[in-house]
Amino acid sequence: MQSYTFRIAKSKIISVILTLVTLVSTIPFLLVLYFIVKNGISVINWEFITHLPTPVGEPGGGILNALVGTVILIFIALILSVPFGVLVGIFLAEKSGSKISFFVRMMSEILQGVPSIVVGIIAYLWVVKPMGHFSALSGGVALGIMMLPVIIKSTEEILKLIPVEIKEASLALGVPYYKTILRVMLPAGLSGILSGILAGIARIAGETAPLLFTAFGNPFLNFNILKPISAMSLLIFNYAISPYEDWWAKAWGASCILVFFVLTLNVITRIISSRK
Amino acid sequence: MKISISQSLAKLILLFGFLFQFLSIPVFSQDRELLGAGATFPYVLYSKMFDAYYKQTNVKVNYQSIGSGGGIRQLKEKTVDFGASDAFLSDEQLREFDSPVLHIPTCLGAVVITYNLPGNPQLKLTPDVIADIFLGKIKKWNDPRITNLNPGINLPNLNITVVHRSDGSGTTFVFTDYLSKVSNEWAQKVGRGTSVAWPVGLGGKGNEGVTGLVKQIPGAVGYVELIYAKQNKLPQALVKNKSGKFINPELSSISAAGKTKIPDDTRISITDTDAEDGYPISSFTWILVYKEQNYKGRSLERAKQLVKLLWWIVHEGQAYTEPLDYAKLPGEVVKKAEKIIKSITYNGKPVYQEVGIK
After folding, report:
1. Domains contained in chain B, number
2. Do A216 and B37 count as a contact with CB atoms less than 8 A apart?
3. I need a surface site. Which of A200, B101, B193, B281 has the fewest CB within 10 A?
4. Residues facing residue B225 across a β-bridge
5. ipTM higher than the 0.95 cut
Protein backbone atom coordinates (compact mmCIF):
# COMPACT_ATOMS: atom_id res chain seq x y z
CA MET A 1 0.00 0.00 0.00
CA GLN A 2 1.21 3.45 -0.88
CA SER A 3 1.98 5.86 1.87
CA TYR A 4 -0.39 8.58 2.82
CA THR A 5 1.95 11.43 1.86
CA PHE A 6 2.63 9.86 -1.52
CA ARG A 7 -1.04 9.72 -2.32
CA ILE A 8 -1.57 13.32 -1.25
CA ALA A 9 1.44 14.39 -3.32
CA LYS A 10 0.09 12.50 -6.35
CA SER A 11 -3.26 14.16 -5.99
CA LYS A 12 -1.64 17.57 -5.78
CA ILE A 13 0.54 16.97 -8.83
CA ILE A 14 -2.42 15.84 -10.89
CA SER A 15 -4.51 18.82 -9.88
CA VAL A 16 -1.67 21.22 -10.71
CA ILE A 17 -1.30 19.60 -14.13
CA LEU A 18 -5.04 19.83 -14.76
CA THR A 19 -5.08 23.50 -13.74
CA LEU A 20 -2.20 24.21 -16.10
CA VAL A 21 -3.90 22.41 -18.98
CA THR A 22 -7.08 24.37 -18.31
CA LEU A 23 -5.13 27.61 -18.37
CA VAL A 24 -3.37 26.61 -21.59
CA SER A 25 -6.75 26.28 -23.29
CA THR A 26 -7.33 30.00 -22.81
CA ILE A 27 -4.03 30.92 -24.46
CA PRO A 28 -5.27 30.89 -28.08
CA PHE A 29 -8.09 33.25 -27.19
CA LEU A 30 -5.81 35.56 -25.24
CA LEU A 31 -3.32 35.59 -28.11
CA VAL A 32 -6.05 36.44 -30.62
CA LEU A 33 -7.20 39.24 -28.36
CA TYR A 34 -3.64 40.47 -27.87
CA PHE A 35 -2.80 40.63 -31.57
CA ILE A 36 -6.09 42.19 -32.55
CA VAL A 37 -5.81 44.89 -29.90
CA LYS A 38 -2.13 45.46 -30.62
CA ASN A 39 -2.67 45.91 -34.36
CA GLY A 40 -6.15 47.33 -34.36
CA ILE A 41 -6.44 49.82 -31.54
CA SER A 42 -4.17 52.42 -33.12
CA VAL A 43 -6.37 52.57 -36.24
CA ILE A 44 -9.59 53.24 -34.40
CA ASN A 45 -10.55 56.84 -34.01
CA TRP A 46 -13.60 59.00 -34.56
CA GLU A 47 -13.03 59.26 -38.30
CA PHE A 48 -12.66 55.50 -38.61
CA ILE A 49 -16.20 54.88 -37.40
CA THR A 50 -17.92 57.89 -38.97
CA HIS A 51 -16.49 58.03 -42.50
CA LEU A 52 -16.85 55.99 -45.65
CA PRO A 53 -13.81 54.14 -47.05
CA THR A 54 -11.34 56.00 -49.23
CA PRO A 55 -9.56 54.32 -52.14
CA VAL A 56 -6.00 53.12 -51.71
CA GLY A 57 -3.42 55.86 -51.42
CA GLU A 58 -5.75 58.43 -49.91
CA PRO A 59 -5.32 58.99 -46.21
CA GLY A 60 -8.19 58.72 -43.77
CA GLY A 61 -11.49 57.11 -44.42
CA GLY A 62 -13.40 54.71 -42.27
CA ILE A 63 -15.77 51.82 -42.20
CA LEU A 64 -19.12 53.50 -41.64
CA ASN A 65 -20.73 51.57 -44.50
CA ALA A 66 -19.76 48.26 -42.90
CA LEU A 67 -20.86 49.27 -39.40
CA VAL A 68 -24.26 50.40 -40.66
CA GLY A 69 -24.49 47.31 -42.85
CA THR A 70 -23.81 44.88 -40.03
CA VAL A 71 -26.37 46.61 -37.80
CA ILE A 72 -29.05 46.50 -40.51
CA LEU A 73 -28.27 42.86 -41.35
CA ILE A 74 -28.53 41.86 -37.69
CA PHE A 75 -31.77 43.81 -37.44
CA ILE A 76 -33.30 42.00 -40.42
CA ALA A 77 -32.10 38.64 -39.11
CA LEU A 78 -33.70 39.38 -35.74
CA ILE A 79 -37.05 40.37 -37.23
CA LEU A 80 -37.11 37.17 -39.24
CA SER A 81 -35.84 34.70 -36.70
CA VAL A 82 -36.96 35.86 -33.24
CA PRO A 83 -40.75 35.45 -33.64
CA PHE A 84 -40.26 32.14 -35.40
CA GLY A 85 -37.61 30.86 -33.04
CA VAL A 86 -39.43 31.78 -29.83
CA LEU A 87 -42.72 30.28 -31.02
CA VAL A 88 -41.04 27.06 -32.08
CA GLY A 89 -39.16 27.00 -28.76
CA ILE A 90 -42.44 27.33 -26.85
CA PHE A 91 -43.96 24.51 -28.87
CA LEU A 92 -41.01 22.23 -28.24
CA ALA A 93 -41.08 22.95 -24.50
CA GLU A 94 -44.83 22.46 -24.18
CA LYS A 95 -45.17 19.41 -26.39
CA SER A 96 -41.76 18.04 -25.69
CA GLY A 97 -42.76 14.38 -26.00
CA SER A 98 -44.64 14.54 -29.30
CA LYS A 99 -43.42 13.14 -32.61
CA ILE A 100 -43.53 16.53 -34.28
CA SER A 101 -41.33 17.93 -31.53
CA PHE A 102 -38.85 15.14 -31.93
CA PHE A 103 -38.74 15.77 -35.66
CA VAL A 104 -38.49 19.57 -35.39
CA ARG A 105 -35.85 19.35 -32.68
CA MET A 106 -33.75 17.07 -34.84
CA MET A 107 -34.15 19.34 -37.89
CA SER A 108 -33.16 22.37 -35.87
CA GLU A 109 -30.06 20.59 -34.61
CA ILE A 110 -29.11 19.57 -38.13
CA LEU A 111 -29.67 23.15 -39.29
CA GLN A 112 -27.21 24.30 -36.68
CA GLY A 113 -24.59 22.04 -38.21
CA VAL A 114 -25.11 23.19 -41.80
CA PRO A 115 -21.98 25.03 -43.01
CA SER A 116 -22.58 28.76 -43.22
CA ILE A 117 -21.56 28.96 -46.89
CA VAL A 118 -24.38 26.51 -47.70
CA VAL A 119 -26.86 28.74 -45.89
CA GLY A 120 -25.54 31.58 -48.05
CA ILE A 121 -26.19 29.60 -51.22
CA ILE A 122 -29.70 28.76 -50.01
CA ALA A 123 -30.43 32.45 -49.43
CA TYR A 124 -29.02 33.14 -52.90
CA LEU A 125 -31.43 30.64 -54.44
CA TRP A 126 -34.41 31.73 -52.35
CA VAL A 127 -34.02 35.49 -52.44
CA VAL A 128 -31.32 36.76 -54.79
CA LYS A 129 -32.29 34.74 -57.85
CA PRO A 130 -36.05 35.41 -57.72
CA MET A 131 -35.45 39.10 -56.98
CA GLY A 132 -32.80 39.29 -59.66
CA HIS A 133 -30.30 41.25 -57.60
CA PHE A 134 -28.24 41.14 -54.42
CA SER A 135 -29.74 42.76 -51.37
CA ALA A 136 -29.39 43.35 -47.65
CA LEU A 137 -32.62 41.41 -47.27
CA SER A 138 -31.09 38.24 -48.70
CA GLY A 139 -28.12 38.62 -46.33
CA GLY A 140 -30.56 39.05 -43.45
CA VAL A 141 -32.41 35.90 -44.50
CA ALA A 142 -29.14 33.93 -44.51
CA LEU A 143 -28.15 35.24 -41.08
CA GLY A 144 -31.69 34.70 -39.78
CA ILE A 145 -31.57 31.05 -40.79
CA MET A 146 -28.28 30.72 -38.94
CA MET A 147 -29.70 32.30 -35.79
CA LEU A 148 -32.87 30.25 -35.75
CA PRO A 149 -31.53 27.05 -34.10
CA VAL A 150 -29.78 29.04 -31.36
CA ILE A 151 -33.00 30.86 -30.44
CA ILE A 152 -35.15 27.74 -30.64
CA LYS A 153 -32.79 25.81 -28.42
CA SER A 154 -32.37 28.48 -25.77
CA THR A 155 -36.12 29.22 -25.61
CA GLU A 156 -36.94 25.54 -25.24
CA GLU A 157 -34.29 24.93 -22.59
CA ILE A 158 -35.23 27.91 -20.47
CA LEU A 159 -38.96 27.17 -20.57
CA LYS A 160 -38.29 23.60 -19.49
CA LEU A 161 -36.40 24.89 -16.46
CA ILE A 162 -39.39 26.80 -15.13
CA PRO A 163 -40.98 24.77 -12.29
CA VAL A 164 -44.14 23.13 -13.53
CA GLU A 165 -45.89 24.26 -10.30
CA ILE A 166 -45.87 27.85 -11.52
CA LYS A 167 -47.72 26.86 -14.65
CA GLU A 168 -50.13 24.68 -12.67
CA ALA A 169 -50.82 27.49 -10.23
CA SER A 170 -51.67 29.82 -13.08
CA LEU A 171 -53.95 27.29 -14.73
CA ALA A 172 -55.56 26.44 -11.38
CA LEU A 173 -56.49 30.10 -10.95
CA GLY A 174 -58.45 29.88 -14.19
CA VAL A 175 -55.99 31.69 -16.46
CA PRO A 176 -56.42 30.48 -20.03
CA TYR A 177 -53.64 28.38 -21.51
CA TYR A 178 -52.44 31.01 -24.01
CA LYS A 179 -52.34 33.64 -21.29
CA THR A 180 -50.43 31.31 -19.03
CA ILE A 181 -47.82 30.97 -21.73
CA LEU A 182 -47.66 34.68 -22.62
CA ARG A 183 -48.04 36.20 -19.16
CA VAL A 184 -46.50 33.61 -16.87
CA MET A 185 -44.12 31.36 -18.71
CA LEU A 186 -42.54 33.82 -21.13
CA PRO A 187 -41.85 36.54 -18.55
CA ALA A 188 -40.34 33.92 -16.25
CA GLY A 189 -38.06 32.76 -19.02
CA LEU A 190 -37.42 36.19 -20.49
CA SER A 191 -33.84 36.51 -19.34
CA GLY A 192 -33.00 33.13 -20.84
CA ILE A 193 -34.70 33.94 -24.13
CA LEU A 194 -32.93 37.27 -24.28
CA SER A 195 -29.57 35.72 -23.64
CA GLY A 196 -30.35 33.19 -26.37
CA ILE A 197 -31.05 36.02 -28.79
CA LEU A 198 -27.83 37.77 -27.83
CA ALA A 199 -25.91 34.54 -28.27
CA GLY A 200 -27.53 34.27 -31.70
CA ILE A 201 -26.36 37.76 -32.63
CA ALA A 202 -22.87 36.94 -31.42
CA ARG A 203 -23.00 33.82 -33.58
CA ILE A 204 -23.82 35.69 -36.79
CA ALA A 205 -22.08 39.03 -36.32
CA GLY A 206 -18.79 37.76 -37.71
CA GLU A 207 -20.11 35.51 -40.45
CA THR A 208 -18.60 36.18 -43.88
CA ALA A 209 -19.47 33.18 -46.01
CA PRO A 210 -23.28 33.56 -45.98
CA LEU A 211 -22.93 37.19 -47.05
CA LEU A 212 -20.61 36.80 -50.04
CA PHE A 213 -23.42 36.00 -52.45
CA THR A 214 -26.28 37.72 -50.66
CA ALA A 215 -25.47 41.05 -49.00
CA PHE A 216 -22.62 41.28 -51.53
CA GLY A 217 -20.93 44.39 -50.10
CA ASN A 218 -21.16 48.05 -51.00
CA PRO A 219 -18.55 50.78 -50.77
CA PHE A 220 -21.29 53.38 -50.36
CA LEU A 221 -23.64 54.02 -47.47
CA ASN A 222 -26.93 52.22 -47.97
CA PHE A 223 -30.10 52.09 -45.89
CA ASN A 224 -32.29 50.38 -48.46
CA ILE A 225 -32.73 46.72 -47.61
CA LEU A 226 -33.44 45.87 -51.24
CA LYS A 227 -29.94 46.91 -52.31
CA PRO A 228 -26.53 45.40 -51.68
CA ILE A 229 -25.02 46.34 -48.36
CA SER A 230 -21.62 46.05 -46.74
CA ALA A 231 -20.79 44.23 -43.53
CA MET A 232 -17.85 44.24 -41.14
CA SER A 233 -16.88 40.69 -41.99
CA LEU A 234 -16.99 41.32 -45.75
CA LEU A 235 -14.88 44.44 -45.37
CA ILE A 236 -12.30 42.63 -43.23
CA PHE A 237 -12.10 39.82 -45.78
CA ASN A 238 -11.62 42.16 -48.73
CA TYR A 239 -9.08 44.35 -46.97
CA ALA A 240 -7.08 41.47 -45.52
CA ILE A 241 -6.41 39.89 -48.92
CA SER A 242 -5.45 43.19 -50.56
CA PRO A 243 -1.79 44.03 -51.18
CA TYR A 244 -1.86 47.29 -49.22
CA GLU A 245 -0.60 47.88 -45.71
CA ASP A 246 -3.07 50.70 -45.24
CA TRP A 247 -5.95 48.32 -45.89
CA TRP A 248 -4.43 45.64 -43.67
CA ALA A 249 -4.36 48.18 -40.85
CA LYS A 250 -8.01 48.97 -41.47
CA ALA A 251 -8.85 45.28 -41.48
CA TRP A 252 -7.20 45.00 -38.05
CA GLY A 253 -9.15 48.00 -36.81
CA ALA A 254 -12.43 46.58 -38.08
CA SER A 255 -11.58 43.17 -36.54
CA CYS A 256 -10.92 44.86 -33.23
CA ILE A 257 -14.34 46.54 -33.27
CA LEU A 258 -16.06 43.32 -34.33
CA VAL A 259 -14.34 41.22 -31.66
CA PHE A 260 -15.23 43.67 -28.92
CA PHE A 261 -18.81 43.81 -30.13
CA VAL A 262 -19.11 40.03 -29.96
CA LEU A 263 -17.24 39.91 -26.66
CA THR A 264 -19.57 42.48 -25.15
CA LEU A 265 -22.59 40.50 -26.32
CA ASN A 266 -21.19 37.36 -24.75
CA VAL A 267 -20.47 39.10 -21.46
CA ILE A 268 -23.97 40.61 -21.36
CA THR A 269 -25.41 37.18 -22.13
CA ARG A 270 -23.47 35.74 -19.21
CA ILE A 271 -24.64 38.48 -16.86
CA ILE A 272 -28.30 38.09 -17.87
CA SER A 273 -28.32 34.33 -17.65
CA SER A 274 -26.50 34.19 -14.31
CA ARG A 275 -28.94 36.66 -12.75
CA LYS A 276 -31.80 34.95 -11.02
CA MET B 1 -52.49 44.48 -17.81
CA LYS B 2 -54.51 46.04 -20.59
CA ILE B 3 -52.15 48.98 -20.66
CA SER B 4 -49.15 46.77 -21.07
CA ILE B 5 -50.79 44.89 -23.95
CA SER B 6 -51.53 48.08 -25.82
CA GLN B 7 -48.05 49.27 -25.01
CA SER B 8 -46.48 46.23 -26.55
CA LEU B 9 -48.86 46.53 -29.48
CA ALA B 10 -47.70 50.12 -29.97
CA LYS B 11 -44.11 48.93 -29.86
CA LEU B 12 -44.85 46.30 -32.46
CA ILE B 13 -46.48 48.85 -34.74
CA LEU B 14 -43.48 51.13 -34.29
CA LEU B 15 -41.19 48.27 -35.19
CA PHE B 16 -43.10 47.48 -38.34
CA GLY B 17 -43.25 51.15 -39.19
CA PHE B 18 -39.50 51.21 -38.96
CA LEU B 19 -39.25 48.17 -41.20
CA PHE B 20 -41.60 49.57 -43.78
CA GLN B 21 -39.73 52.80 -43.78
CA PHE B 22 -36.80 50.79 -45.07
CA LEU B 23 -38.91 48.98 -47.60
CA SER B 24 -40.70 52.01 -48.89
CA ILE B 25 -37.67 54.16 -49.63
CA PRO B 26 -38.49 55.06 -53.21
CA VAL B 27 -36.19 53.61 -55.82
CA PHE B 28 -35.68 57.00 -57.43
CA SER B 29 -31.93 56.58 -57.47
CA GLN B 30 -31.95 53.14 -59.05
CA ASP B 31 -30.54 54.25 -62.37
CA ARG B 32 -27.76 56.17 -60.73
CA GLU B 33 -26.29 52.96 -59.44
CA LEU B 34 -24.45 50.21 -61.25
CA LEU B 35 -23.41 46.84 -59.95
CA GLY B 36 -20.39 44.84 -61.02
CA ALA B 37 -18.59 41.74 -59.82
CA GLY B 38 -15.64 39.62 -60.78
CA ALA B 39 -11.85 39.58 -60.95
CA THR B 40 -9.85 40.27 -57.81
CA PHE B 41 -6.83 41.56 -59.69
CA PRO B 42 -8.28 44.94 -60.83
CA TYR B 43 -10.29 45.43 -57.61
CA VAL B 44 -8.06 48.16 -56.25
CA LEU B 45 -7.99 50.04 -59.54
CA TYR B 46 -11.74 49.76 -59.96
CA SER B 47 -12.45 50.93 -56.43
CA LYS B 48 -10.26 53.98 -57.05
CA MET B 49 -11.81 54.63 -60.48
CA PHE B 50 -15.37 54.27 -59.22
CA ASP B 51 -14.70 56.53 -56.26
CA ALA B 52 -13.44 59.20 -58.64
CA TYR B 53 -16.37 58.55 -60.98
CA TYR B 54 -18.83 59.01 -58.12
CA LYS B 55 -17.26 62.35 -57.23
CA GLN B 56 -17.48 63.50 -60.85
CA THR B 57 -20.87 62.21 -61.88
CA ASN B 58 -22.69 61.21 -58.68
CA VAL B 59 -23.22 57.74 -60.13
CA LYS B 60 -22.52 54.98 -57.61
CA VAL B 61 -20.72 51.95 -59.00
CA ASN B 62 -20.55 49.04 -56.58
CA TYR B 63 -17.84 46.57 -57.58
CA GLN B 64 -17.18 43.42 -55.56
CA SER B 65 -14.22 41.16 -56.18
CA ILE B 66 -15.64 37.67 -56.06
CA GLY B 67 -13.18 36.19 -58.56
CA SER B 68 -13.24 36.01 -62.36
CA GLY B 69 -15.30 32.82 -62.37
CA GLY B 70 -17.87 34.38 -60.05
CA GLY B 71 -18.09 37.48 -62.24
CA ILE B 72 -18.81 35.41 -65.34
CA ARG B 73 -21.40 33.39 -63.45
CA GLN B 74 -23.21 36.43 -62.03
CA LEU B 75 -23.35 38.04 -65.48
CA LYS B 76 -24.90 34.85 -66.77
CA GLU B 77 -27.45 34.97 -63.92
CA LYS B 78 -28.02 38.65 -64.77
CA THR B 79 -27.65 39.75 -61.17
CA VAL B 80 -25.03 42.36 -62.10
CA ASP B 81 -24.67 45.09 -64.74
CA PHE B 82 -21.19 43.99 -65.66
CA GLY B 83 -18.82 41.16 -64.91
CA ALA B 84 -15.04 41.35 -64.81
CA SER B 85 -12.52 38.69 -65.69
CA ASP B 86 -8.78 38.24 -66.09
CA ALA B 87 -9.29 35.48 -68.63
CA PHE B 88 -11.37 36.09 -71.74
CA LEU B 89 -14.31 33.82 -72.44
CA SER B 90 -13.66 30.98 -74.83
CA ASP B 91 -16.01 30.43 -77.78
CA GLU B 92 -17.50 27.56 -75.88
CA GLN B 93 -18.12 29.68 -72.78
CA LEU B 94 -19.69 32.40 -74.93
CA ARG B 95 -22.17 29.91 -76.35
CA GLU B 96 -23.48 29.24 -72.84
CA PHE B 97 -24.83 32.80 -72.68
CA ASP B 98 -28.27 33.38 -74.17
CA SER B 99 -27.22 36.69 -75.74
CA PRO B 100 -23.87 37.99 -77.09
CA VAL B 101 -21.33 39.21 -74.56
CA LEU B 102 -18.73 41.92 -75.20
CA HIS B 103 -15.21 42.16 -73.77
CA ILE B 104 -13.95 45.62 -72.93
CA PRO B 105 -10.28 45.73 -71.93
CA THR B 106 -9.65 48.09 -69.00
CA CYS B 107 -5.94 47.79 -68.19
CA LEU B 108 -3.01 45.41 -68.26
CA GLY B 109 -1.38 43.44 -65.53
CA ALA B 110 1.61 41.19 -65.22
CA VAL B 111 2.53 38.04 -63.38
CA VAL B 112 6.03 38.23 -61.95
CA ILE B 113 8.37 35.50 -60.81
CA THR B 114 9.41 36.25 -57.28
CA TYR B 115 11.74 34.41 -54.90
CA ASN B 116 13.42 34.38 -51.54
CA LEU B 117 17.23 34.30 -51.76
CA PRO B 118 19.93 35.80 -49.56
CA GLY B 119 20.33 39.44 -50.58
CA ASN B 120 17.48 39.06 -53.08
CA PRO B 121 19.48 39.73 -56.28
CA GLN B 122 17.53 40.49 -59.46
CA LEU B 123 17.78 37.30 -61.48
CA LYS B 124 17.52 36.83 -65.23
CA LEU B 125 15.45 33.87 -66.32
CA THR B 126 14.65 32.32 -69.68
CA PRO B 127 11.33 30.65 -70.56
CA ASP B 128 12.79 27.13 -70.59
CA VAL B 129 14.40 27.62 -67.17
CA ILE B 130 11.14 28.95 -65.70
CA ALA B 131 9.23 25.99 -67.11
CA ASP B 132 11.78 23.49 -65.78
CA ILE B 133 11.78 25.10 -62.33
CA PHE B 134 7.99 24.80 -62.14
CA LEU B 135 8.14 21.27 -63.60
CA GLY B 136 10.51 20.36 -60.78
CA LYS B 137 13.39 19.52 -63.11
CA ILE B 138 15.71 22.24 -61.81
CA LYS B 139 16.05 21.55 -58.11
CA LYS B 140 18.84 23.78 -56.83
CA TRP B 141 19.42 27.51 -57.06
CA ASN B 142 23.06 26.94 -58.05
CA ASP B 143 22.06 24.77 -61.01
CA PRO B 144 24.36 25.67 -63.93
CA ARG B 145 21.35 26.62 -66.07
CA ILE B 146 20.51 29.40 -63.62
CA THR B 147 24.06 30.45 -62.79
CA ASN B 148 25.01 30.67 -66.48
CA LEU B 149 22.25 33.20 -67.00
CA ASN B 150 23.35 35.20 -64.00
CA PRO B 151 27.11 35.64 -64.03
CA GLY B 152 28.36 37.69 -61.14
CA ILE B 153 25.55 36.63 -58.85
CA ASN B 154 26.59 34.16 -56.20
CA LEU B 155 23.72 31.70 -56.00
CA PRO B 156 23.61 29.43 -52.92
CA ASN B 157 23.38 25.66 -52.87
CA LEU B 158 19.76 25.84 -51.78
CA ASN B 159 16.77 23.72 -52.69
CA ILE B 160 14.15 25.42 -54.84
CA THR B 161 10.70 25.35 -53.26
CA VAL B 162 7.98 26.06 -55.79
CA VAL B 163 4.96 27.98 -54.47
CA HIS B 164 1.77 28.11 -56.50
CA ARG B 165 -1.89 29.03 -56.02
CA SER B 166 -4.15 26.55 -54.32
CA ASP B 167 -7.33 28.30 -55.46
CA GLY B 168 -8.66 28.85 -58.97
CA SER B 169 -7.33 32.13 -60.29
CA GLY B 170 -6.88 34.35 -63.32
CA THR B 171 -3.25 34.77 -62.27
CA THR B 172 -2.67 31.04 -62.62
CA PHE B 173 -4.37 31.09 -65.99
CA VAL B 174 -2.03 33.80 -67.30
CA PHE B 175 1.05 32.07 -65.92
CA THR B 176 0.18 28.57 -67.16
CA ASP B 177 -0.92 30.02 -70.50
CA TYR B 178 2.55 31.51 -70.81
CA LEU B 179 4.29 28.26 -69.81
CA SER B 180 2.14 26.29 -72.26
CA LYS B 181 3.25 28.59 -75.06
CA VAL B 182 6.96 28.44 -74.29
CA SER B 183 7.31 24.79 -73.23
CA ASN B 184 5.97 21.80 -75.11
CA GLU B 185 6.53 19.61 -72.12
CA TRP B 186 4.45 21.94 -69.95
CA ALA B 187 1.69 22.09 -72.55
CA GLN B 188 1.50 18.29 -72.68
CA LYS B 189 2.00 17.43 -69.01
CA VAL B 190 0.17 20.26 -67.25
CA GLY B 191 -1.53 22.62 -69.67
CA ARG B 192 -3.30 25.90 -68.98
CA GLY B 193 -6.20 26.74 -66.72
CA THR B 194 -7.35 28.70 -63.69
CA SER B 195 -6.21 25.74 -61.60
CA VAL B 196 -3.92 22.98 -62.84
CA ALA B 197 -2.30 19.81 -61.50
CA TRP B 198 1.05 21.19 -60.37
CA PRO B 199 3.92 18.71 -60.70
CA VAL B 200 5.72 20.09 -57.61
CA GLY B 201 5.36 22.65 -54.90
CA LEU B 202 3.24 24.11 -52.14
CA GLY B 203 -0.10 25.85 -52.54
CA GLY B 204 -1.04 29.22 -51.11
CA LYS B 205 -4.50 30.79 -51.20
CA GLY B 206 -4.64 33.96 -53.23
CA ASN B 207 -1.84 36.29 -54.24
CA GLU B 208 -1.47 37.14 -50.56
CA GLY B 209 -1.02 33.45 -49.66
CA VAL B 210 1.70 32.89 -52.26
CA THR B 211 3.43 36.12 -51.21
CA GLY B 212 3.35 35.00 -47.60
CA LEU B 213 4.83 31.57 -48.33
CA VAL B 214 7.60 32.97 -50.51
CA LYS B 215 8.52 35.42 -47.75
CA GLN B 216 8.67 32.64 -45.15
CA ILE B 217 10.61 29.96 -47.01
CA PRO B 218 14.25 30.57 -47.96
CA GLY B 219 14.76 29.27 -51.50
CA ALA B 220 11.09 29.63 -52.43
CA VAL B 221 9.96 30.74 -55.87
CA GLY B 222 6.43 31.72 -56.82
CA TYR B 223 4.34 33.77 -59.21
CA VAL B 224 2.18 36.72 -58.14
CA GLU B 225 0.65 39.84 -59.59
CA LEU B 226 3.26 42.60 -59.90
CA ILE B 227 1.54 44.79 -57.32
CA TYR B 228 1.84 42.13 -54.59
CA ALA B 229 5.57 41.71 -55.20
CA LYS B 230 6.05 45.48 -55.20
CA GLN B 231 4.05 46.18 -52.08
CA ASN B 232 5.82 43.39 -50.22
CA LYS B 233 9.22 44.47 -51.54
CA LEU B 234 9.92 41.07 -53.05
CA PRO B 235 12.40 40.72 -55.92
CA GLN B 236 11.09 40.24 -59.47
CA ALA B 237 12.96 38.27 -62.11
CA LEU B 238 13.78 39.67 -65.56
CA VAL B 239 12.24 37.39 -68.15
CA LYS B 240 13.58 36.81 -71.65
CA ASN B 241 10.91 37.57 -74.25
CA LYS B 242 10.40 36.33 -77.78
CA SER B 243 12.77 38.94 -79.23
CA GLY B 244 15.55 37.70 -76.95
CA LYS B 245 15.57 40.66 -74.57
CA PHE B 246 15.53 40.32 -70.80
CA ILE B 247 12.61 42.42 -69.70
CA ASN B 248 12.00 43.87 -66.26
CA PRO B 249 8.32 43.74 -65.29
CA GLU B 250 7.44 47.42 -65.08
CA LEU B 251 4.50 49.46 -66.26
CA SER B 252 6.03 50.52 -69.56
CA SER B 253 7.09 47.00 -70.55
CA ILE B 254 3.71 45.56 -69.55
CA SER B 255 1.88 48.21 -71.53
CA ALA B 256 4.23 47.51 -74.43
CA ALA B 257 3.22 43.85 -74.40
CA GLY B 258 -0.19 44.99 -75.63
CA LYS B 259 1.33 46.57 -78.73
CA THR B 260 0.76 43.57 -80.88
CA LYS B 261 -1.91 42.49 -83.32
CA ILE B 262 -5.17 42.62 -81.40
CA PRO B 263 -8.38 41.15 -82.82
CA ASP B 264 -11.44 43.39 -82.94
CA ASP B 265 -13.13 41.69 -80.00
CA THR B 266 -9.85 42.03 -77.97
CA ARG B 267 -10.10 38.40 -76.91
CA ILE B 268 -6.44 37.60 -77.07
CA SER B 269 -3.77 36.23 -74.84
CA ILE B 270 -0.69 38.46 -75.01
CA THR B 271 1.58 36.16 -73.03
CA ASP B 272 4.83 35.47 -74.92
CA THR B 273 4.12 38.67 -76.83
CA ASP B 274 5.70 39.54 -80.20
CA ALA B 275 6.25 43.11 -79.02
CA GLU B 276 9.97 43.82 -78.86
CA ASP B 277 10.00 45.56 -75.47
CA GLY B 278 7.02 43.77 -74.03
CA TYR B 279 7.14 41.81 -70.78
CA PRO B 280 6.13 38.29 -71.78
CA ILE B 281 3.85 37.34 -68.86
CA SER B 282 1.37 40.19 -69.28
CA SER B 283 -2.37 40.11 -69.78
CA PHE B 284 -5.37 42.31 -70.33
CA THR B 285 -8.19 42.34 -67.85
CA TRP B 286 -11.70 42.79 -69.13
CA ILE B 287 -15.13 44.04 -68.20
CA LEU B 288 -17.90 41.88 -69.64
CA VAL B 289 -21.31 43.24 -70.62
CA TYR B 290 -24.24 42.13 -72.72
CA LYS B 291 -24.31 43.62 -76.22
CA GLU B 292 -28.08 44.04 -76.07
CA GLN B 293 -28.88 45.94 -72.90
CA ASN B 294 -32.65 45.50 -72.88
CA TYR B 295 -32.88 42.33 -70.84
CA LYS B 296 -34.80 41.46 -67.73
CA GLY B 297 -36.66 44.77 -67.69
CA ARG B 298 -33.60 47.00 -67.58
CA SER B 299 -34.27 50.64 -68.28
CA LEU B 300 -32.68 52.58 -71.11
CA GLU B 301 -31.36 54.97 -68.47
CA ARG B 302 -29.37 52.14 -66.89
CA ALA B 303 -27.92 51.11 -70.24
CA LYS B 304 -26.88 54.71 -70.84
CA GLN B 305 -25.17 54.91 -67.45
CA LEU B 306 -23.28 51.72 -68.23
CA VAL B 307 -22.10 52.96 -71.64
CA LYS B 308 -20.99 56.28 -70.13
CA LEU B 309 -19.09 54.47 -67.42
CA LEU B 310 -17.30 52.16 -69.87
CA TRP B 311 -16.36 55.09 -72.09
CA TRP B 312 -14.99 56.91 -69.05
CA ILE B 313 -12.94 53.86 -67.94
CA VAL B 314 -11.07 53.51 -71.23
CA HIS B 315 -10.43 57.28 -71.46
CA GLU B 316 -10.30 59.48 -68.34
CA GLY B 317 -10.18 56.43 -66.11
CA GLN B 318 -6.80 55.40 -67.55
CA ALA B 319 -5.18 58.21 -65.56
CA TYR B 320 -5.71 56.18 -62.39
CA THR B 321 -3.87 53.09 -63.61
CA GLU B 322 -0.19 53.92 -63.26
CA PRO B 323 -0.20 55.45 -59.76
CA LEU B 324 -1.64 52.13 -58.60
CA ASP B 325 0.87 49.96 -60.55
CA TYR B 326 -1.50 48.88 -63.28
CA ALA B 327 -0.41 49.33 -66.90
CA LYS B 328 -2.35 51.64 -69.22
CA LEU B 329 -4.10 50.45 -72.35
CA PRO B 330 -2.04 51.20 -75.47
CA GLY B 331 -3.66 53.73 -77.84
CA GLU B 332 -4.62 51.15 -80.46
CA VAL B 333 -6.40 49.06 -77.87
CA VAL B 334 -8.36 52.10 -76.67
CA LYS B 335 -9.55 52.54 -80.28
CA LYS B 336 -10.71 48.93 -80.36
CA ALA B 337 -12.44 49.36 -77.01
CA GLU B 338 -14.26 52.45 -78.33
CA LYS B 339 -15.61 50.45 -81.21
CA ILE B 340 -16.81 47.70 -78.91
CA ILE B 341 -18.52 50.17 -76.55
CA LYS B 342 -20.23 51.78 -79.53
CA SER B 343 -21.68 48.44 -80.52
CA ILE B 344 -23.73 48.21 -77.31
CA THR B 345 -27.41 48.47 -78.15
CA TYR B 346 -30.77 48.94 -76.48
CA ASN B 347 -33.62 47.40 -78.47
CA GLY B 348 -31.15 47.07 -81.32
CA LYS B 349 -30.36 50.80 -81.35
CA PRO B 350 -26.82 51.90 -80.47
CA VAL B 351 -26.77 53.51 -77.03
CA TYR B 352 -23.68 55.68 -77.46
CA GLN B 353 -25.43 58.25 -79.66
CA GLU B 354 -27.93 58.95 -76.90
CA VAL B 355 -25.29 59.82 -74.34
CA GLY B 356 -23.44 62.30 -76.52
CA ILE B 357 -20.45 60.15 -77.46
CA LYS B 358 -19.14 60.97 -80.91
Report:
1. 2
2. yes
3. B193
4. B111
5. no
